Predict the structure.
Amino acid sequence: MPRSNWKSLLLVSVVATIGGALLIAAIVWTIRLPLLGWSGLLPFVLLVVLTLLSSRFTVPVTNVDGSSQTHKSVADALIFLAVMIYTLPPAETVGPAIILAAIVGFVASFSLAERWSTVFAIGMTIISTFVASLVYRLMIVTFAGGAVTGNQHGLVLDLLLFPLCVFGIVQYAVSTFGTISFNSFFLGQGRITVSHESLIWTLMTQVANVTAAALFYSAIHDRGIPFLFVGILIVGLVHLLYRFNEKRLSEVTRAQAEKLRYMEEIADLHMNTIESLAIAIDAKKTRRLTVTCGELRFTRARWASY
């Protein structure tokens, strides 16, 4: 086995071990939650169900040749929501967010061709969520201090949104670029050739997820159904816009391919016509030469008879 593959397997093993340990710890932390309440087990079960239903709606990060490297799912909004609900008091745990991240990573990355890439993507999603959750909690404690246990409504708009954006950036950077770098290293590519357009679309999806999570959190804390509706609308519109753009690009690519195939068929037809003309000209020259030689032999025979 090439040395690069050994290094890749070693890297996958390290990431999978860390991710597995964090997932086990997250399960232990989560089952210690109370059953009822907004930060209890019942809301978490609902988040798990919604995550399973929405994780397959993804936006891929692709190479310039169109091959997928990793995916960002609209279900990331539920991960962000879990961070906002469970990271701060009274729950004070990152367990639910890590479990949701593992589910999203598995469902969103299952379509990747290489199984090692899938394992690495799941592990990186778990690790990035854990690291970003620590950054989020540190920022909240630094900015809010004792107000963390106070007025949660004020924290949503004044203090929670900016740390949540930082959480989204950290989680996106670690999981996405870590997975892209691993795939390039695993395939032996010297440089990363990621499509800039796909990065923009995944960033837009991430921003929409952050915004939707803040709106969902506001809706939970007595802000009403309109906040919930607007959050779903934002995520849905961004995803539909991406799908429409993807369909448009596929139609343009298909039209270009058909045009190229038509030009190749015309070129082949011209070449066949030229070859047919060349064969006909050669045949005509051969026939004319045969007739001339026959006439010459006939003339010689007549002169010989005299």
The chain has one domain: 3-258. The CA atoms of residues 25 and 272 lie 71 Å apart. The radius of gyration is 33 Å.
